[in-house]
Design a protein that fits this description.
Largest sheet: none
Mean pLDDT: 90
Order of helices and strands: HHHH
Number of domains: 1
Distance between the termini: 37 Å
Number of helices: 4
Radius of gyration: 16 Å
Helix content: 25-40%
Structural class: mainly alpha
């Protein structure tokens, strides 16, 4: 399983197994914490998980959906901005 930009373990669990519950096994098999940041191009072990939803996986595959809910630099700029008078400059 190859990580795409801004993907998290939860993104991968939903798109590859059809359930967020698979995130526990995915993290365990890869020696990671649930909140670890992933790098684009990183290769993860694809564990066997049999209690997911084939219908959800098929939906993501058929519609070429690759969830990526990680924060971008623009997102972190907004979060890290402590000047309430300057927030509008981030949306120009």
């Amino acid at each position: 399983m190859i990580v795409k930009p801004y993907q998290s373990l939860l993104d991968l669990a939903v798109s590859n197994y059809g359930t967020v519950e698979a995130v526990i096994q995915l993290a365990f098999e890869n020696g990671m914490a649930l909140t670890d940041d992933l790098e684009a191009g990183e290769v993860l072990i694809d564990p066997i998980y049999t209690t997911g939803s084939d219908a959800i996986v098929a939906f993501y595959e058929n519609n070429q959906i690759h969830p990526a809910t990680g924060l971008t630099e623009a997102d972190t700029d907004i979060i890290d901005n402590n000047d309430p008078c300057d927030l509008c400059s981030l949306f120009k």
